[in-house]
């Protein structure tokens, strides 16, 4: 059973001002309005400016302060677009505006890449809904056209919107879960052929898009066509299907005004579970020779049936541990090491492992974000999140990353990180928390304005007071170490043995004891059988042997091993070598033993 430290992170605006007032879930909900100041904007020498206006009186606000909101803006030339911050026109007005630039060159942080005749769309998510709303948020969009004059309308009019079943019969009642076809007619009244895209958008009563589809084609002069969209409603309610005729998806210049058809879906259906995300940071097993505790970050997204992909966010760790003697060295490793991050992750879903292809791994230059955590200035390192396609027929996706760990300073481990998400921190079983600190932070980040800083200091439970061990090894077991007397004996073969005083540090003793406990040393038998049941035996000459004697908590136990042992593929032997490897690695690093003379002769 591991010790659990639960860390909850709030996504709230955190600055040193009076408490924020939130109108979220207000009964006096006012639907937000998003619009452009003009229908068309002039393009001069490839550049120009445009103005967005948002009216949302019940957005979260800080009384007597000028508030801000974020709106995404994209164009035909830049589908990714940019994120713009809109500023309130005055204290508590609920009206937000922003004039920004566009250019036919590449986008900059506040400059949109757009060209003459592009359609530009602004998008805003209104999440302050009434208590009786069945939705958490609605998405608002507003579009405008670049260029003072648009192309001629009615080149390909769309008419006769209708809804039919799979057999082509008109429907007056639409039943939940049954497939329908949404039709319209489109005609080319010109004396030339016309390329077109027929697009149908289905939106619910909250104006959220629930289905979007389109058909590309060519209409010859004075001909018509009846395209359709197939759809299966998943929720009851009122819906609107809007049909558009564009030149193409890449160039949404209207060939005629859009038409709409409204309809209702009846009968209820159980609502599918929403995707859920859980992030766990695991600190522990196994500890290395220098006391390093590995860190494993696991992100599990359950109920993924509604998702095409899952986002690997990780968390935004701080540089934990202490600085070394120079600015480019640390006494403790970072989870995001150095200046670049190489993703090294696997997914496990429905108990089946998935190796993501090579395109998943990439190097990202880390961004540095300043955080003010209740007066303490902190730098947060972060890489962009990665979107991972979910394979079919999987109900959950797990992403696991293990890149480094924590080193002790004077026997203490310090884990520090900042996060925008809930975290579970799993400490080793023998961890003793010395201190736990949490601070709210105002973060200079493009997406989030706040997070939480966490600092957990812990140590590993020490070895028992009566813990001691004697380790002998080699031919005739003439090499040995006695922890009770702090003496290391080296077999010089044809000369007298060397006796060297060697003391183990508290951390080294703790590491050895942790390995002894984790590998159930006191339950082990000897590893000396060299013959199988058929009488086949292994003979090794000269033969090295090992005996490890351990005393702790009033219990004494000894385990012996010989090179001719036949069960080296077994799990018990693997656990024994894990203990002896830990001891050997510690002695390999002891300065007292590094420069001892070599024996003049050896065993044959």
How does this structure look, described?
This protein has 604 residues and is mostly beta strands. It folds into 4 domains: 3-9 and 275-460, no CATH class; 33-146, Immunoglobulin-like (Sandwich), CATH 2.60.40; 158-266, Immunoglobulin-like (Sandwich), CATH 2.60.40; 468-594, Mago nashi protein. Helix content is 6%, strand content 46%. Strands 2, 3, 4, 5, 6, 7, 8, 9 and 10 form a 9-stranded mixed beta sheet that branches. The protein has a 7-stranded mixed beta sheet with strand order 1-33-20-21-31-25-26, with no helix packed on it. Strand 37 (479-482) and strand 38 (487-490) form a beta hairpin. The radius of gyration is 34 Å and the shape is elongated. Residues 1-27 and 313-366 have low confidence and may be disordered.
């Amino acid at each position: 059973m591991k010790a659990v430290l639960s860390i909850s992170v709030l996504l709230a605006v955190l600055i040193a001002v009076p408490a924020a007032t939130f109108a979220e879930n207000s009964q006096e909900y006012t639907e937000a309005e998003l619009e452009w100041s003009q229908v068309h904007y002039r393009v001069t020498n490839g550049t120009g400016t445009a103005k967005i206006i948002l009216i949302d009186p019940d957005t979260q606000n800080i009384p007597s302060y000028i508030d801000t909101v974020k709106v995404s803006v994209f164009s035909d030339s830049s589908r990714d677009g940019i994120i713009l911050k809109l500023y309130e026109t005055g204290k508590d007005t609920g009206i937000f505006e922003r004039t920004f630039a566009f250019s036919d060159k590449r986008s900059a942080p506040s400059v949109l890449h757009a060209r003459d005749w592009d359609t530009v769309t602004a998008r805003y998510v209104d999440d302050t809904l009434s208590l009786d709303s069945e939705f958490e948020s609605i998405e608002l969009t507003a579009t405008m056209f670049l260029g003072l004059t648009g192309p001629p309308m009615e080149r390909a009019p769309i008419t006769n919107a209708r809804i039919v079943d799979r057999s082509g019969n008109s429907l007056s009642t639409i039943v939940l879960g049954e497939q329908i076809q949404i039709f319209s007619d489109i005609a080319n009244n010109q004396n030339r052929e016309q390329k077109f895209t027929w697009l149908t958008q289905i939106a619910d009563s909250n104006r959220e898009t629930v289905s979007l589809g389109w058909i590309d084609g060519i209409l010859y002069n004075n001909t018509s066509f009846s395209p359709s969209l197939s759809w299966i409603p998943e929720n009851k309610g009122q819906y609107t299907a809007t049909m558009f005729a564009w030149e193409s998806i890449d160039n949404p210049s209207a060939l005629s005004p859009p038409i709409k058809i409204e309809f209702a879906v009846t009968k209820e259906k159980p609502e599918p579970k929403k995707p859920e995300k859980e992030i766990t940071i695991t600190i522990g097993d196994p500890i290395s020779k220098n006391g390093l505790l590995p860190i494993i970050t696991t992100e599990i997204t359950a109920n993924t049936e509604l998702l095409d992909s899952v986002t690997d966010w990780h968390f935004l760790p701080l540089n934990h541990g202490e600085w070394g003697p120079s600015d480019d060295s640390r006494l403790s490793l970072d989870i995001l090491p150095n200046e670049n991050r190489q993703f090294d992750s696997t997914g496990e879903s429905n108990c089946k492992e998935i190796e993501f292809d090579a395109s998943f791994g990439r190097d990202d230059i880390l961004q540095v974000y300043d955080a003010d955590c209740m007066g303490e200035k902190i730098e947060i390192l972060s890489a962009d999140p990665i979107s991972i396609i979910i394979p079919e027929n999987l109900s959950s996706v797990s992403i696991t990353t293990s890149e480094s760990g924590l080193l002790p300073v004077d026997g203490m481990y310090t884990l520090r990180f900042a996060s925008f998400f809930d975290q579970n921190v799993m400490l080793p079983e023998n961890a003793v928390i010395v201190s736990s600190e949490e601070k709210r932070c105002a973060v200079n980040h493009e997406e989030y304005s706040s997070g939480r800083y966490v600092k957990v200091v812990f140590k590993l439970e020490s070895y028992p007071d009566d813990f001691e061990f004697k380790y002998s090894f080699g031919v005739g077991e003439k090499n040995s170490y006695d922890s009770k007397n702090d003496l290391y004996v080296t077999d010089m073969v044809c000369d007298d043995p060397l006796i060297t005083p060697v003391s183990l540090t508290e951390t080294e003793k703790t590491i050895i004891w942790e390995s002894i406990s984790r590998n159930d040393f006191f339950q082990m038998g000897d590893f000396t059988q060299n013959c199988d049941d058929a009488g086949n035996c292994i003979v090794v000459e000269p033969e090295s042997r090992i005996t490890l004697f351990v005393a702790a908590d009033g219990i004494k136990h000894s385990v012996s091993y010989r090179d001719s042992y036949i069960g080296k593929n077994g799990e018990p032997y693997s656990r024994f070598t894990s203990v002896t490897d830990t001891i050997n690695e510690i002695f390999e690093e002891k300065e007292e033993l590094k420069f001892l003379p070599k024996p003049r002769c050896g065993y044959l």
